[in-house]
Amino acid sequence: MTELAAARAYYDTVAEEYAARVPGLFEQDVLGRAMLGAFAEEVRTDGDLPVADLGCGPGHVTAHLDALGLRAHGVDVSPRMVDIARRRHPDLRFEAGAMDALGLPDGELGGIVAWWSILHTPPELLPSLFTEFRRVLAPGGRLLLGFHAGNGEPYTGQKRAGGVTYAIHLLSPDQVGRQLERAGFTVTARLTVRM
Fold it and tell me: Is the separation of the CB atoms in 58 and 79 below 8 Å?
């Protein structure tokens, strides 16, 4: 099973539990919400192009971006997560899909948020993922990533019903920054939070 398929199976299995827990944690994340606020301000300044929340889960970040005045929609690999997001936020658009094949025209978006979602992508596949992000962003479009820092080492989560589990990759901020620059991005800010 590929890591993408494993992540889909895992989140489909734990969708309701995850959706009950994670939005509350997001409400406690003062620094994360501040970064999203700065991102929203920059995107609004650049024009009124839509924003994609990639790996949107139950839609709480998408709804937050919408409340900040952005035309945001969510994409998630887990159809069950998308169902929950649609149920919780019926006025917003959510779709099932993969971050590495967005099916959007070139230059369609003013911004992308990948909030704790690239961590399921093996480090060697990040360059192609970032190339897809660059393709769908308009010139000057903004990208905001959130991920667990480390040195590329994988971490396997606890097995759930049916034996599903997931892998995350603890990513080096320096390595991610270099890969973003190779894909045509300019890294303008970086925040490291120690937990």
Answer: no
173-182 and 126-136 helices cross at what angle (nearest 10)?
A: 50
The residues, any chain, with a CB within 8 Å of residue 3's CB and separated by 6 or more, are: 120, 121, 122, 166, 167
Nearest partner of 148 among 123, 116, 174, 125, judged by Cα: 116
DSSP E strands in the chain: the ranges are: 51-54, 72-76, 93-96, 109-115, 137-146, 154-156, 167-169
Q: For 57-71, 106-120, 155-169, 171-185, which range has the lowest pLDDT when averaged over its residues?
A: 155-169
Q: Which of 58, 50, 52 is nearest to 18 (CA)?
A: 58
Quick check: helix, strand or coil at residue 152? coil
Q: Where are the alpha helices (DSSP H) in 107-172?
A: 126-136
This prediction has a pTM of 0.92
Rounded to the nearest 10 degrees, the angle between the axes of helix 79-88 and helix 60-67 is 40
pLDDT at 122: 85
Contact status, residue 110 vs residue 138, Cβ threshold 8 Å:
yes
Name the 3-class secondary structure at 100: coil
**Residue 175 and residue 130: Cα distance in Å, rounded?**
13
pLDDT at 158: 62
